[in-house]
Known about the structure:
Layout: E1 4-7, H1 11-23, E2 27-33, H2 40-44, E3 47-52, H3 63-73, E4 77-79, H4 89-97, E5 101-102, H5 107-114, H6 116-125, H7 141-151, E6 155-159, E7 169-171, H8 177-192, E8 197-201, E9 207-215, E10 221-228, E11 232-233, E12 236-237, E13 239-242, H9 249-265, E14 270-278, E15 284-290, H10 297-304, H11 308-316, E16 331-338, E17 340-341, E18 347-348, E19 351-352, E20 355-357, E21 364-368, E22 375-376, E23 383-391, H12 394-407, E24 409-411, H13 417-425, H14 427-431
Parallel strand pairs: 1-2, 1-4, 2-3, 4-5
Antiparallel strand pairs: 6-7, 6-8, 9-10, 9-14, 11-12, 13-16, 14-15, 16-23, 17-18, 19-22, 20-24, 21-23
Helix pairs in contact: 4-5, 12-13
Amino acid sequence: MFKxxxxxxxGEIALRIIRTCREMGIKTVAVYSTADRxxxxxxxxDEAVCIGPPPSRQSxxxxxxxxxxxxxxxxxxxxxxxxxxxxxxxxxxxxAEYGIxxxxxxxxxxxxxxxKATAKATMKTSGVPVIPGSEGLIDTVEEAKALAKEIKYPVxxxxxxxxxxxxxxxxxxxxxxxxxxxxAKTESAAxxxxxxxxxxxxxxxxxxxxxxxxxxxFGTVCHLSERDCSIxxxxxxxxxxxxxxxxxxELRERMGIAAIKGAAAIKxxxxxxxxxxxxxxxxxxxxxxxxxxxxxxxxxxxxxxFDLIKExxxxxxxxxxxxxxxxxxxxxxxxRINAEDPSNGFRPSPGKITNLHLPGGHxxxxxxxxxxxxxxxxxxxxMIAKVIVSGQSREEVLLRMKRALQEFVIEGVKTTIPFxxxxxxxxxxxxGQFTTAFxxxxxxxxx
Length: 447
């Protein structure tokens, strides 16, 4: 087992990893930018190293600084959390080169899933259902228009190196094709340094369902069932739940088997997710794979009594998994609390927290790195907390979440708490009959 792990991240996920390491008797090293000097992950780690100024490229994306911090402190492993360098194949490769274990996927596995066109081809070969579309990247707009006629509109073009909805356009008619194609190429090149595009049939108003998987170094893969991530705005998730109200036991089993096939095809090591779109007929299609731990992993932990961070660390240390699949024993829901003003287009609201009261009680878990007096920097993602509740039924979970949100007091900045309280009262949401288009009809006034 590792003696010391450096956490190449910040905020609540860094604190989450530190807590598990402490339970496992593993020393921890926090790295931080000057903007995060007063963050809790810096205070709670056994050691802390400043790696640069606030801009991410000069700190949390600064590979030489992070490797130097690991060498100076004698860390024998690095956990990247999510975001930043967590799916950076070059970082994974450099860690291996320096004899530091990267707690996550290998460079080869990240590369095979990081390029979405290649990932889709790999899944198709493995027998995982994929959405009809191009076999790989499309070179010309003429080629794309011909394929669109074949698979029928609407279609969606996507950046092969994309994420967060960037480099993505839905095309419903041929006469708008060229403009949207050019827009997607320009945005993709600017965001990712890669203007490669591929195309798929656009699945109207699907559910977004992801399957949590874990694989070890010996080729064994298991799944821990699904998370429903359909409540999202501009392809950014707002809340997640498990089990999904849209899945039958039979569909859950089929999707779990498909996810295992996909992960096994690349001999996947560590925790990751296979993400699917599920249409109104119950047909599902591979969308992408995330080769890292997910923001919403706590709801899976709550319904399966399974510590995913601990399992990541054990797998990285060469310990085999059992291969047992896990299914929900409870219901769980997570709301992402962002320092944003939902009534003003979810505009970021950094600043000093002047008063803070966290909710508690049975079935309530808070993952957060903030405290009263903490100043939220403007340099990073605006998520400051996750409220996770669990219970015996979906109805109980919705009521418990509303109660917890009403107890949650954050003063000094705007947050998404009022939005989530309103969501808990929404009849469409309470019915469970919603799709990824849910937010298009949601009233954000009077929050």
